[in-house]
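Bit of a strange request maybe. I'm writing a small parser for structure token strings and I need a real example to test against, not something I typed by hand. Could someone generate the tokens for this chain?
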Amino acid sequence: MAEQTQIRTPGRAAEPPAASAKPDSAVIQDALGVGVAVGLSGFAFGVASAGAGLSLLQTCALSLLVFTGASQFALVGALAAGGNPLTAAAGAFFLGARNAFYGLRLSAVLGYRATVKPFAAHWVIDETSAVALAQPDRRTARLGFTVTGLTLYVLWNLTTLVGALGAGALGDTDAWGLDAAGPAVFLALLAPKLTTTVERLTAGLAVVLVMVTLPLLPTGVPVLISALAAPAVLLAQGRRERTEETHGTERSGTGPDDTAPQDGSAQIRRTSGEDRA
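Reply from user aminoacidic:
Good idea to test on real output. This should exercise your parser:
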């Protein structure tokens, strides 16, 4: 077996070996788990949509063309409560606006060509974003995004159809709790990423903002307001760090401006001594 040699550039330390990429099988397993778990909740949407008075065609069109579960549930929920269709659509729009922020991040992570981006944008939702952003490199991010998106899109639309057709036989859908599957999976993906104090404070403040504004504002608006938690926490952290730096400088009694006059005075004294000599 030929011996491998490592070429080193003079004056430069050898670079450590690259970290091993995540196996494709693990990425696919995670993506399928998320896609199946959330895709099955489309059954609850089909039932809820039929219960709100939407036709089979309208229900299936929502899942095919809108494909963002939270907005779809918000729309049919408002209609079922007797809300104005325009108001219901506005609430669903505000709730789905978060996907635009996901798209900004995923555009850089996935790096798709301009011809592919319009099609990939249809799959930019909570679950596909979470799986893609959890991957260590672009290749596995694309794999996770594609498998999650395809699995979820197919299952969501199939279960929507089944739910709409079987709405009459199912009865009370709230007793099944299927609408909680999506948020539960999303929280399970988010929780392991809250590793620092700043991240945990941001998540906690976002929850508080949603809980406070939920009874007061239209559907979807509290979610957008919760996004203010991130800049608020970062601003507070920046002020705290600047305050600590100021106090640390005062306790030490020296700073960048303290040494200059001393060095200048010493230079003047040395020069005067040389002149006397």
